[in-house]
Amino acid sequence: MNDDVSQNLVIFRVEGLAEPVLARAPTKADDAVEQAWASVREQHKVRASKVSAVYSEWEPSAGDLKFMAKNFKKADCKYSFARPGPDGWERAFAEARAVMAEAHAARQQQEQEEELLPVLWSASSPSAGLLDALPHRPLVPGRLSVAVAAVGRTPEGKVGMHHVTRHQQEQLGTPVEKLFDVAYGALTRGLKLGVRSSGDDVLVSVTRETLLAASAIALPDLYSQLSPHFGGGDLLVGLPCADQMVVVREDSSLAADVRQQVLNSPHDTTELVPSVLRLGPGGLALLAERSR
Fold first, then answer.
1. Within the chain, what is the greatest distance between any pair of CA atoms?
2. Domain spans of the chain?
């Protein structure tokens, strides 16, 4: 945890750069944001007109607000801590340290409950542009990929997901292959197959005790695990959302129902657009996606 409140963290989102860039400047300085920008501009050779968002840990001064209005005309600005009057810095710093310590403790607790999991990304997803910043593998080239994220439940019971970026992977020094091995191993723990038969038709539902059952489509041995239930042949896989997978033989009378279930899925589009795929000995093919 960095609790040096005497240094203001300023983060700039710049068009053309895959990840936000950050710099620090003295918190009390009236031109802290301007100083931080000068450092970023020098390091990355970027123009102020390309800045689309600014986050300053501390509320910018009146002087910085004028500088930002003049130079970052398209940028939204957010901050966490209100700027005090000249005599209020000691109290403001103490309150900020307490908030940072509490947030750090909450993050540590959440990280203990997170697991590294594979996440499916559709090329047609509105979020697909972010994939360039993540280490990923193609499943269906140009259509469907898999990346890795730390996933868990927040204290409020919501799903928290932190995608592993290329920068983070390089900082960790972990080979990409190792990241995926760990993620696939975590995914398989808790995976369950439910098999139902009706005459000659077999339907397998793939579920998981927690999240992201659909990511099982990325497992290298998935076909060999499923095919014994169907007697071989090509399989039709329905992914109505990131947490559900339904599998039938492609020539099954149930195939049309699975396709309709996916194409009429009520679930929101996330990184994954609800999809229908063919899984066979030769690999994967994307057959259809729900209209977003």
1. 81
2. 7-106, 115-187, 190-289
